[in-house]
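Incident review: delayed structure delivery

Summary: a single-chain prediction request sat in the queue longer than the usual turnaround. Root cause was a stuck worker, restarted by the on-call engineer. No data loss occurred. The affected request and its eventual output are reproduced below so the record is complete for anyone auditing the incident later.

Affected input:
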Amino acid sequence: MTQNPWKPLLDWYDENKRDLPWRHTADPYRIWLSEIMLQQTRVETVKDYYRRFLTLFPTVKQLAEAPQEQVLKAWEGLGYYSRARNLQKAAQMIIAEWQGAFPSAYDEIVKLPGIGPYTAGAIASIAFREAVPAVDGNVYRVLSRYYGIRSDVGIPSVQKEIRALALQGMPKSRPGDYNQALMELGAVLCTPQSPKCDLCPWHLRCNAEEEGDAEVLPVHEKKKPQKTIEVSVCLLTYGRQVLVQKRQERLLHGLYVFYLIEEEARPEKLEEILSEAGFPCAFEREVGTARHVFTHRIWEMKLFHFTLRDMPSACVLQESNGQMIDGAALSALPFPTAMKAAREAADRLIGDSATIPPADNAE
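Output delivered after worker restart:
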């Protein structure tokens, strides 16, 4: 197997590729945006976000100049918000260092914030026809199976080998289509479970199909189990306003959350912690539970409603990166998906107290 049979792959791609909005453009900004959105996110979910984002920020310049909260709000629900922050940082760098013209070479693109070898390879090959590989999880899987690579793909030397094989098989006339064809093959046929080998354009040459071990490739080192963290979500209301805080920690940085205490505690203990932080309050009731899975941790959340005894002072709010907001602001500010249940509960609390369900039905 000395030569990668790119022609049957490209013939298959030309006939079977999905009709996706970012495949109708050679604009590097749009290709870049789609690749960033598609990281860790399903294609069907990305389609609507992609269109809405481009309506709000149709150019690199408009993205660079937008308030960060507006960018995060447009990203709300997609998760992995560092992608949005880096997207805007990179747009600002393009304006400052390239006068708004997207850099056209892989070696320049890969220097932008939030862009690694895969994304740089995708942009350079699709938008600028540069012959560079774009190796994502789908491509690691396809090429590991095709070439029979049975070493851990998490090892840098194995990754380097696969990138070399991807480049070796690339037709110089259609590098972008070749990269997309490999990704497409991994997404629709050469899937992690139950690959459709009989429909694959490479099935007569695939080492894994011949050996019968396609489903166990690529080899991955076992991941460490996620850490479960108990979180008390405190909804502090005063009249028809609720306390929110702009997150300063790396996780969910720049997004708005309610007062979070990373421990499971009785309401009396939570009252004490909140009072010491400058928010004297009275416990009302538990209003629900929620669970959110991050990459390396799981938040198991209990939602508690407290009424503030007084409106917090400006000094206390400033020190806690907090603000008291009404229902309109609750809808306008960017919140992470992890706060979805809490935001819905808060909306009921400050909207119409008669609509608050009993605690045991709050979910």
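Verification: The CA atoms of residues 262 and 289 lie 14 Å apart.
Action items: add queue-age alerting; document worker restart procedure.
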